[in-house]
Design brief:
Its EC number is 2.7.8.28. It holds the Pfam family CofD. This is 2-phospho-L-lactate transferase. By secondary structure, the protein is of the alpha/beta class. It folds into 2 domains: 244 residues, CofD-like domains (Rossmann fold, 3-Layer(aba) Sandwich), CATH 3.40.50.10680; 39 residues, no CATH class. Helix content is 38%, strand content 19%. The strands form 4 sheets. It has a 7-stranded parallel β-sheet, with helices on both faces. Helix 1 packs parallel to helix 2 and helix 1 crosses helix 13. The protein starts with a strand and ends with a helix. The model has no long low-confidence stretch (mean pLDDT 97). Bound molecules: guanosine-5'-diphosphate and calcium ion. Calcium ion binds next to helix 2.
Length: 329
């Protein structure tokens, strides 16, 4: 196992990758890990470019994450955003902590002086040393928007709002009719992204949101084809346990696109590589073991193990089980 590539969103992808790195450190210390990170949640706030998933992965792997929250920095303060609010220009629904602001300021400055997001990410990672190569899925801005099914505040039904506004401000409790990735048609995969999939020995879809994290990366031109064509095995880990999104509101995303919130529903949504999908193998939680025959019938090799990422040892064991499932058979 020399090269492992992960397609990650924020919290779920970051936590899993931490376990993966811990496992590989023992069984394949020379292995390199590339994490292709969703940038569909990126947005401009107060003149700053915010990349929520890249930051979550970078802080988590680099030891700078607020562990309880799963995002942002520990011991954070909000003095700067309180000052912005005093001017009546705040985004009360999105936290911009003082320490976190430094990252956004450095990123925005580099972007404005002509660096690509890939270059900026590499630069930020020089400080955080995440132990894996982090690649944005694309250097072109791609922003996920949702189409509202009902009026809310100053938005009318049929309007599109940024996914983060729906997710963070409205807690995904406002009905939406679909997702739109603005900028996708003009976007190309960032340098190294397609090669990281093609040249991998193993590709992992961690327990990230299947719709707005992994789904958005898969929608970048060339990514799905690279996954379908790679000689590497592709193994996924279910973000759904016992019919519920473990943390967060992924069920609201799945139901919007008509996919059942279940381990088998998401597995079949990704589909078997033998029949046009992207998976060779799919790891589900032990409580969902009843789904194993349906997955096998669909041509997806599966196993059921504990999938709660409660601490590093449990998460490391999950990563080990995913690797085992991928290489056997
Ligand atoms: P986000 O961008 O911060 O929302 O993070 P991701 O897209 O990477 O992951 C979010 C998803 O991770 C959630 O929708 C959950 O379904 C899943 N998740 C979070 N914690 C766990 C866990 O402990 N175990 C499993 N199996 N899935 C989890
Ligand atoms: Ca995200």
């Amino acid at each position: 196992m020399k090269h492992v590539t992960v397609l990650a969103g924020g919290v779920g992808g970051a936590r899993f990758t931490r376990g993966l790195l811990a496992h590989l450190a023992v069984v394949a210390p020379k292995a390199t890990v590339t994490v292709i990170v969703n940038t569909g949640d990126d947005m401009w706030l107060d003149g700053l470019r915010i990349c929520p998933d890249l930051d979550t992965v970078m802080y988590t792997l680099g030891g700078g994450i607020n562990e309880e929250q799963g995002w942002g920095r520990p011991n954070e303060t909000r003095r700067a955003s309180a000052e912005i609010a005093a001017y009546g220009r705040d985004w009360s629904w999105f936290t911009l902590g003082d320490l976190d602001l430094a990252t956004h300021i450095v990123r925005t400055d580099l972007l404005r002086s002509g660096s690509t997001l890939s270059e900026v990410t590499e630069f930020l990672c020089r400080r955080w040393q995440p132990g894996a190569r982090l690649l944005p899925m694309s250097d072109q801005p791609v922003e996920t928007h949702v189409c509202l099914a009902e009026n809310i505040d100053n938005h009318a039904a049929g309007d599109y709002i940024h996914f983060e506004e729906w997710w963070v401000r409205y807690r995904a409790r406002v009905a939406v009719t679909g997702f739109l990735q603005r900028g996708l048609a003009a976007a190309v995969a960032a340098p190294g992204v397609l090669a990281a999939i093609t040249n991998a020995d193993l590709v992992v879809l961690p327990p990230s949101n299947p719709v707005v994290s992994v789904g958005t990366i898969l929608a970048v031109p060339g990514v799905r084809d690279a996954l379908r064509g790679t000689a590497a095995r592709v193994v996924g880990v279910s973000p759904i346990i016992g019919g519920a999104a473990v943390r967060g509101m992924a069920d609201a995303c799945l139901s919007t696109i008509g996919v059942a919130t279940s381990a088998v529903g998401v597995g079949l949504h990704y589909g078997s590589r033998r029949s046009g999908g992207v998976l060779d193998a799919w790891l589900i939680d032990e409580t969902d073991a009843a789904a194993l025959p349906a997955l096998a019938a669909a041509g997806i090799r599966s196993a059921a193990v504990p999938l709660w990422m409660t601490d590093l040892p449990t998460t490391t064991a999950m990563a080990a089980a995913a690797l085992r499932l991928a290489v056997e058979g």
